[in-house]
Amino acid sequence: MNILVVDDDPHIVRALAITLKGQGYTVVTATDGESALRAAAQRPIAVMILDLGLPDMEGNAVITAVREWSAVPILVLSARHGSNDKVEALDAGADDYITKPFGLEELLARLRALLRRSAEPMEEVTKVETSSFTVDLGKRQITKEGQDVRMTPTEWNILDILIRNPDKLITQQQLLTEVWGPAYAKEANYLRVYMAQLRRKLEKEPGSPRHLITEPGMGYRFVP
Questions:
Q1: Taking phi first (over 0 means left), then psi (-120 to 50 degrees means alpha), and beta for anything else, what does residue 109 get?
Q2: DSSP string spanning 168-223?
Q3: How far apart are CA 162 and CA 168, in angstroms?
Q4: Which tens digits make up the pLDDT trace of 51-84?
Q5: Is the separation of the CB atoms in 114 and 107 below 8 Å?
Q6: Are residues 213 and 160 in the same domain?
Q7: Residues 77, 165: one domain?
Q8: pLDDT tens per residue across span 147-177
Q9: 20 to 30 A Cα–Cα from 68, which one of 47, 60, 84, 172?
């Protein structure tokens, strides 16, 4: 079970990593908002532990970006004690808020509570069948006409976001930000190349796709 720790304080990151690993969790770390968004998009995350004072962007902006495509529980860990700060983080989509300094036992208890609350959604079926291909997100496996289809990590990241949001328009900027990072938010040519590759691998007629749909000038949509 992956726990993503996002904090630019190396002492806190190290302490949390040691504690969480001792509890049997796998720990992924990030020291800024861009790397946090990239890490969240690259692998399944059970909980994100997030500091608000990041060097490149506000923690609330990270929450907002994640909430555009993921319901992963977010536990804010911040030195900001004001009630307004807590309200803003919770309104942005955070699930819980702990102020620094904090006790590790309390943090672990809050973490367990978030995992319990999210257990049912996390157990939802992640297998999707279309007229052209079948995707099992849990096993990271795709089959088409009875044959396994190999995917690059980037192709998986794009497809994962689209499939977890069926029939929903996912903007170009959102996909670029989540897969490559905020610095690539305007590089639409990246998406055109990868979407063409995905259609060649998955659609029966790549030139007339039925499932990976382009919304001109806006983004892409997965239609089951």
A1: alpha
A2: --EEHHHHHHHHT-GGGTT-HHHHHHHHHHHHHHH-SSTTS-SSEEEETTTEEEE-
A3: 8
A4: 999 999 999 999 998 888 888 899 998 887 777 8
A5: no
A6: yes
A7: no
A8: 999 988 889 989 998 998 888 888 888 888 8
A9: 84
How do strand 141-144 and strand 147-148 relate by DSSP bridges?
Answer: antiparallel
Q: What is the pLDDT of residue 6?
A: 96
Token pair, residue 25, equals 């969790």
Closest listed residue to residue 182, CA positions, set 20, 58, 38: 38
Q: Which residues of 22-43 are buried (b: 16+ CB within 10 A; e: fewer)?
A: eeebebbbbbbbbbbbbbbbbe
Which residue, 212, 199, 202, is CA-closest to 149? 202
Tell me which residue range forms the domain holding 27. Answer: 2-122
Distance between CA 50 and CA 41 in Å, rounded? Answer: 15
- The per-residue pLDDT for range 15-58, each reduced to its tens digit, is 999 999 999 999 999 999 999 999 988 888 999 999 999 999 99
Give yes or no for a contact between 177 and 37, defined as CB atoms under 8 angstroms apart. yes
What crossing angle do the helices spanning 59-67 and 33-42 adopt, rounded to 10°?
A: 30
